[in-house]
Amino acid sequence: MRRPRYDGHVTSRFVVGALNVLIVVGCGSSASTGDDGAGPDATAAVDGGVDAPPGVWSPEPACASTADGIYAATAAGGARGSVAACALGAVLTQAQTQAAMAGDGAEGVTAQTGARVVKLAYRTIRSDGTAAVTTATAYLPLVPRTVPAQIVLIGRPTSGLADSCAPSKDEMPEKNLALPFAARGFIAITPDYAGLGNAGTHAYLDTHEEVTQLFDGVLALRAMLPGNIVGEAVAAVGYSQGGGIVLGAQALEHALTGKHTLKAVAAIAPEWPISTRSFGYEDILRNPNGLTGLAGLSSPTVAVLRHYGFMANRMGAAAAGDAFPAGERSELVSSIEGLCTVPLGGALNAQQIHLRDLVDETFRLAVLACIDGTAGCAGAGKQFHDWMVGDFVTADAAGARVLITQGLADQVMPAAGEAACDVAKLRAEGVQPDLCTDALSTHDTVLERKIEDVVAWTEAVITGATPPVCSSQTLPACNR
Q: Does domain 64-274+399-463 have CATH number 3.40.50.880?
């Protein structure tokens, strides 16, 4: 069903032609808001910092690499946030931007400008402090709504751990999630996260690592586009795994950056690890004789990806498969290293028939002992449990305003098992999220059906307008 386009007419503060008025370059400080201090890991901005007078906007960074070349970039020789390599991609006119969004289900958002696609690799760190590189895709608006240009950080959904699954290997990834914000005059950047497509292994669902790398993208944009033409990150928007990442960004922004520049955080069908019961994890451990195919559309896939990512990064590459049963290990490792998310889930259902085929018995019993506080909490199971629990974050009551968007027909991240519990956690920690739900949306269709609502809400919060109220705000109770 074709939906009406979001063209900015939400309140009297939204004017379709405002983009061309707002691009006049002014003097003074950037769009930074909030605290003045630099966080413990903050890196000084280039070209005199964000308080220098802005230069003239150009969406043409000096990039000399090829799109494939960014995956060979290394962490050597540069500070966090420095650009190791970048490559220019397509330039889309306003009409081409509109067509690209429409072709990926985001025709409800009206493009007000075209965009330049840039592939980049920037230096960052892993959660253990190790230097690393993440690749990313940036969409630079041809005509930004302000100068310095404001940034929307984009959290992408789960794609798998195989190098071929890195979203930036697509010419224009997240056309229904990142491109709509560039089309409205923001810079949008969507990282792959370290180890996906380049050296190492992506630390799947490591919130601290993913959020750190997300914020380091701000430094990378400033390094790639010097002259104080890049401002602050004013919003973070994510879908599925990315929804959990941006909720983590809301919680960790001040701790990681020393600032509160994010005004809006929009999480769509979020996959946010907030307890040992998230994503049916405890159910897998407690029901080893259950059928993999009946454990839910995502639970088995999430469990094996998280186990593999943890073991590879914390126990060493040679031990990456040690959380899997010995008899299934080779096949599981081959599937994870060769398949992206959807075919991986199919392979698990076909090849690992029972849940006991997914988790080594000693590892399973050790993790359960840690959860239950009983004897036997030891070894790799204890290390995994301690990392998992230690990675849960507390929402920042002084941080960005939050929107949770959820399809009530979602079978991948069921509303009662995930979003409803996320909302309960946010409220308990002093954050009152706005809600936008849809009875007909599944996990696969929620972006197509609700992205214009997310864009409208995000723009309103950024500009200080009254955000639109979604027609449905009903969620079931948390059933964990």
A: no
